[in-house]
Amino acid sequence: MQEFTKFPTKTGRRSLSRSISQSSTDSYSSAASYTDSSDDEVSPREKQQTNSKGSSNFCVKNIKQAEFGRREIEIAEQDMSALISLRKRAQGEKPLAGAKIVGCTHITAQTAVLIETLCALGAQCRWSACNIYSTQNEVAAALAEAGVAVFAWKGESEDDFWWCIDRCVNMDGWQANMILDDGGDLTHWVYKKYPNVFKKIRGIVEESVTGVHRLYQLSKAGKLCVPAMNVNDSVTKQKFDNLYCCRESILDGLKRTTDVMFGGKQVVVCGYGEVGKGCCAALKALGAIVYITEIDPICALQACMDGFRVVKLNEVIRQVDVVITCTGNKNVVTREHLDRMKNSCIVCNMGHSNTEIDVTSLRTPELTWERVRSQVDHVIWPDGKRVVLLAEGRLLNLSCSTVPTFVLSITATTQALALIELYNAPDGRYKQDVYLLPKKMDEYVASLHLPSFDAHLTELTDDQAKYLGLNKNGPFKPNYYRY
Q1: 237 is in an annotated binding site
Q2: How distant, in Å, are the alpha carbons of 113, 230, 270, 330, 421 from that of 144?
Q3: Distance CA 381, CA 45 (A)
Q4: pLDDT over threshold 50, residue 1
Q5: Which of 2, 175, 363, 374 lies most in the core, judged by the most C-beta atoms within 10 Å?
Q6: 275 labelled as ligand-binding?
Q7: Is 131 annotated as a binding residue?
Q8: Which sites bind substrate (predicted)?
């Protein structure tokens, strides 16, 4: 009730011909975060905070929220049994002893379980957030209380975002030798500001479409100077996190922010990759009329065979009720599209990057922005038309809601194994290129999660294994197999 009173629904029209960094600070707590709004006006960068051990090697919203965050982490651990199992199995061996990992990911209860697992396996970690809206402040506080050097809070400005990354990388007496990235911003910053750091980096682990694309660009240009592991295209990431996670979280994010009913609504989903497939399956199940835009004829054909109509965005932009982007590209939804949308059209992004919707083009004097609730803005045209923009074009599910813990356990376990593999690989195994996770590791990650379903695998007989030309213990599929 205090939150509602402080931020009433009708705040009046306010012009947003201001900078992106100013707008980025307009962030309030979501249902997933115990944010104390009483100190929202004070930047964490201006606060002097210490944890119970006297350390101030962190920057979070409020270290006093650590107890709440610890409860969130404990709840997440209950549904991340595979990662906890990996932690227990490898804790004695300390396979990451000596590893100094600098990370830039979403900072949620689930990623906190990953970070603490890496620490339990012997690593030292410094962490920042890859999204200015997805950080759970109480979880960041709990990590800081536990001794992790974390620099992140919900509602960072653009300047804060890069400052936090810089604080993670640039510390006297500490130099990273491993990078865990989500989106490529951390890798980009190191290349730009601290190229000498790569002399000691043993490898990069990247988990997003956007970040992987950047790595392949560097590799193609001959500028990738360390081995990199493409976790995004591992089976256990792409087929589970991208597909099943988005199938559930797209509805959660839209419901929490707009209370929209999907039955009969016309929705256009831009992109029919694994994220798009998950979104479309959920929307179709609730009775929405779903259109697809695609550049890839194979994905387009899949959409047609799944019962969706493939169109160009211009063909349906005037009639649709919801526009969802999940391509990993830039300027998928332009100002021209936004001008042609109907009144009350909802626009959101499910891709990692915030470049898919041209939000910058909306920050002009003739348009008025009105904040109606957390992460929900009405952009109002001179004729009174309103477009409902969610999370300012950033990732919807992690900005506006939460994501299923179990699926994130699969991704986190994959990331942990990728870090262990790169860090312990003998010289020469991996060159300065981008690699996929070995198939055997993908299968191991999957096997760790099967006990949660009381699933029992059938074992090959010696004769059957010989007939198929397989090892009885796997891998069971060739690298070119598509699941």
Answers
A1: yes
A2: 13, 29, 39, 35, 27
A3: 36
A4: no
A5: 374
A6: yes
A7: no
A8: 108, 182, 207, 237, 241
Q: Is 387 annotated as a binding residue?
A: no
The number of residues in the chain equals 483
Which pLDDT tens digit goes with each residue over 221-238?
999 999 999 998 888 888
Amino acid at 364: T
Q: What tokens appear for 193 in the block?
A: 């500001």
pTM, two decimals, is 0.82
Q: Which two tokens stand for residue 409?
A: 């356990």
Give the pLDDT confidence of 68-120 residue by residue, as tens digits.
Answer: 999 999 999 999 988 998 898 888 899 999 999 999 999 999 999 999 999 99
Task: Provide the Cα torsion 281, 282, 283, 289; round to 10°.
Answer: 30
Cα angle 41-47-50, degrees, rounded to a multiple of 5: 140
